[in-house]
Amino acid sequence: MTPETAILAAILLPLIGALVIALAGRVGPNIREAATAVTSISLIFVVWGLLPVIMDGGRPSIEVSQVMPGLSIAFTVEPLGMLFAALASGLWLINSLYSVGYMRGNKEKNQTRFFACFALALSATMGIAFAGNLFTLFLFYELLTLSTYPLVAHKGDAATVRSARVYLGVLISTSIALFLPAIIWTYSVAGTGDFTHGGILADKLNDPEVGLLLGLFAFGIGKAAVMPMHKWLPAAMVAPTPVSALLHAVAVVKVGVFAITKIIIYIFGIEFLFDASSSQWLLYAAAFTIIAASVVALRQTNIKRLLAYSTIAQLSYVVMAAAIFKPLAELGASLHMVAHAFGKITLFFAAGAIYVASKKTEIAQLRGIGRRMPWTMAAFTIGALSMIGMPPTAGFVSKWYILAGAFEANNFVAMFTIIGSTVLNAAYFLPILYMVWFEREKEGGKEHGEAPLLAVIALCITALLTLGFFLFNAPVIEPESQIVKGFG
User: Fold this and answer.
1) Membrane topology per the record (predicted)?
2) Is cis: bond before 228, omega within 30 of 0?
């Protein structure tokens, strides 16, 4: 298979898989879930098969269709997109394993629709990862929003549908009102929207225009959840936990910060933005989001809502790192996408396992639960420590590079934001860990043990990945360093 064929296969495989999953659901759940597993494994084989090409400096690309002169649907594989595609495809398999245990253990309805829509979302994610220009990115960005709406609205009750409409409304309105005009503006001044090393906008805009265009992109890409475009994310917590894991770790929010980072590097160019004084506001907006969301998380009593606000803060770590406009910080942004994915999916898996086993959703209900669910809570502990940024977890590695980039730029706002938010992260996670392991469970509680085995296996795998990335991160750092090669 040529690299060009592999690009198309990565996008089409989940799409075909969604159809097969829908048909297999009529036969039986085991066939349906086998189809999900085969599709996800096939996707890993195709996507990860592109890694050697990228490591050798190759940049395979293919143009599928020219919509009009200068506007085409095209795909290119570069290191940042390769990282995102490899991450999403790998975590889809683990999430599918977890979903089988969760959906069966919780006796959820419409499971066939759930697995089919999940596959559609991964097809859109692959299109975003390999997008060769802004138009292609926008097209698949919208497809991802539409394909995930049924997942958020999965339960179907009035409150869930209302929250799902908030999810859809915020993401569609921001992309149409802000993201699309930013794309049109870029094409009009640069004559192209192709992602190009070093950017395409140098000498095309004056200083104030740079800040305005950057704002249209940053707030138009609502999936990045930079305040005040964050309200869709807590609203989406009505979805089943595997969907929350998709939203927070595998695809949706990662698409947001991935797109902003890619636009900063390949459309603006980091040196161009570093020299433009009007671009500095983005770092302050991200820093505010980090601190504000962390403070709000301190006040949460529901497990999933706490994790939602934690995600808002952690996403803006990536945006802030990208907005430092220094090589080490850009590398830190890439690493934090991986670190956050491993740690946050572990936390959501654990939250879902707790719900399936005990129906507990509130933090106060977790007293002593570590004795009943040692595997689940050990994984939760690892995920929480990674969110704080403590060694030996993935979160320490990414925060180290972001902090190094802040020192490289003499950016004291970023330095103090990282330190302050780390303290806040510890303030809302450590009391939970103490409660889980060292306090006694209230008498009269429901007798229960661990969640279904498949769910426990999945969360243990992601917890091990969170630990493993601390030691084995060179395979990510090496190709991602190619992105910033030559930038000072």
Assistant:
1) Multi-pass membrane protein
2) yes
User: 238-247, 374-383, 431-440, 465-474: lowest mean pLDDT where?
Assistant: 238-247
Please give the average per-residue pLDDT across 83-112, as a whole number. Answer: 84
Helix, strand or coil, per DSSP, at residue 382: helix
Nearest to 351 by CA among 254, 224, 458: 458
Domain stop point among 257, 279, 301: 279
- Residue 231: phi and psi, rounded to 5, are -65, -20
* Domain hosting residue 393, numbered range: 281-488
Picking from 245, 279, 313, the residue at the C-terminal end of a domain is 279
Contact 302, 361 (CB under 8 A): yes
Token pair listed for 255: 């698409």
CB 304 within 8 A of CB 376: no
Query: Under a CB-based contact definition with an 8 Å cutoff, are residues 345 and 247 in contact?
Result: no
Query: Does 468 lie in the same domain as 436?
Result: yes
Question: Is residue 285 domain-shared with residue 185, that is, in the same domain?
Answer: no
User: CA separation (Å) from 349 to 352, 436, 456?
Assistant: 5, 16, 8
> Taking Cα atoms as reference points, which of 228, 133, 213 lies closest to residue 179?
213
Q: By C-alpha distance, which of 277, 418, 338 is closest to 91? A: 338
What's phi and psi for 2, nearest 5 deg? Answer: -75, 160
Tell me which H or E stretch contains 62. Answer: strand 61-68
Q: Examine the domain organization and report whether 335 and 462 are in the same domain.
A: yes
Higher pLDDT among residues 68 and 156, named by residue? 68
pLDDT at residue 249 above 70?
A: no
**Three-class DSSP category at 194:** strand
Higher-scoring residue by pLDDT: 379, 167: 379
Give the pLDDT confidence score for residue 488 in this predicted structure. Answer: 47
Nearest to 413 by CA among 265, 272, 288: 288
Question: Is 376 in contact with 459 (CB distance < 8 Å)?
Answer: yes
Q: Are residues 299 and 151 in the same domain?
A: no
Residue 287 has pLDDT above 60, yes or no: yes
CB 119 within 8 A of CB 92: no
pTM: 0.92
Q: What is the pLDDT of residues 429-478, one digit of tens each?
A: 999 999 999 988 776 566 778 888 888 999 999 999 999 999 998 888 88
